[in-house]
Structure prediction request, 415 residues.
Amino acid sequence: MHHIVIGAGPAGVTACETLRDLDPSARITLIGDEPEPPYSRMAIPYLLVEQIDESGTYLRRSNDFYARNRIDVMSMPVSSINPADKVISLSTHDTLDYDRLLIATGSTPVQPPISGINLPGVHNCWNLADARAIATRATPGTRVVLIGAGFIGCIILESLHKRGIELTVVEREDRMVPRMMDEAAGGLLKRWCESKDITILTRTGVSGIEQEGAGLSVSLDNGDTLAAGLVITATGVQPNTGFLQGADIDIDQGILVDNYLETSKADIFAAGDVAQGRDHPTGGFVVQAIQPTAVEHGRIAAANMVKARSVVHRGSLNMNILDTHGLISSSFGQWMGVEGGDSAVLLDQDRYLYLNLQFGGDHLVGASSIGYTQHIGVLRGLICSRAPLGAWKQRLLDDPTRLMEAYLGSVQGLA
Ligand SMILES: Cc1cc2nc3c(=O)[nH]c(=O)nc-3n(C[C@H](O)[C@H](O)[C@H](O)COP(=O)(O)OP(=O)(O)OC[C@H]3O[C@@H](n4cnc5c(N)ncnc54)[C@H](O)[C@@H]3O)c2cc1C
Prediction:
């Protein structure tokens, strides 16, 4: 049995590890296209603040992990797949036969259509090469413009600011993290950042970037310009599916998979940022593009590659957790609420506290919070369990902070 895994990120590496556990005699090939050993993008912010070195980003720390587990690692882009013949082609035109194939090729940052986006000094913050370039330019006192205040933008914001730079964030939408939190919470986060001397421009677009002397000049759609030594873009990602042209695999926002993470082609599975998998609690199929989902996908896809339809993917919970200068914000599931649902909201502007619970019938279906760190595990547990809240629903509507009691009462049956 030859298992091929394309993509050496968290989904691909977890899958290979699971394949080896479940299929001791199989041949396993892991194919990436980056020069470094498989690493975690999530660790890049820690690299930027020099909390770790590059080796600290590696997904498996011991040098011999892959050899010990008899996983052949190749660094070579896969250029096409032929499902009928069960063959993949590499960019060298070499081919490899597979019995089961996993596509875990992740996503790539979207390049906003802005003139000057390819100038030197304009970077994504997506891979280790980007991190090196940013570390070279983002020296204390440098003016940095960050385009995009979504989840990834806000993660980068934290580490950039810790490097002692002068930071301006430009966000087209009306608030920070618009796909993670509502206006009240986004506004609170913005005020917090401003109190830390970060300039946040919402409802503002970038219309162009030009070279100006040794630096850059960023034109805004309100007519202003910003001088910058470094511009970083974080305006969303798109799944890496280009090489699948001609493979006739069903693709929507990402590669469509069933409840076993198998694609529309037999013996081809997909996992991680590239896959449009089941969402918990909606039951719909979405691209979540977060690492916990990638790892969960990788593990389940691998189990089903070894033994067909052995493990059902019941859905991953979409969740985002941010630490912005010590202010922790989080969002889970259907944080924006559901039609006909109820909600409970608590807002304390002065103490930067916010808690928003969303109910669908008798269940908690989503939540967002700022400043309530002690409730993060409980929120996840309540949403994932889909436990009927019974009398606890009204109690939570009256006082949303009683989450722990509600969890113990409804999920653990202790009250
Ligand atoms: C700065 C930063 C911070 C982040 N922080 C968080 C966080 O705090 N929490 C969180 O949940 N998520 C975070 N993320 C997102 C998280 O990193 C991704 O969701 C995760 O990496 C997805 O894993 P993956 O294995 O699906 O894809 P990836 O990690 O993208 O790995 C896919 C690999 O496949 C390779 N590949 C692509 N095409 C081919 C091909 N044709 N042939 C061979 N190889 C190919 C890619 O180069 C890549 O190495 C962060 C991302 C960034 C950039």
Residues 6-12, 31-34, 41-42, 44-45, 77-78, 104-107, 125-126, 152, 155-156, 240, 243, 272-273, 289-292, 294 surround flavin-adenine dinucleotide (CB under 6 Å). The chain has a mean pLDDT of 96.
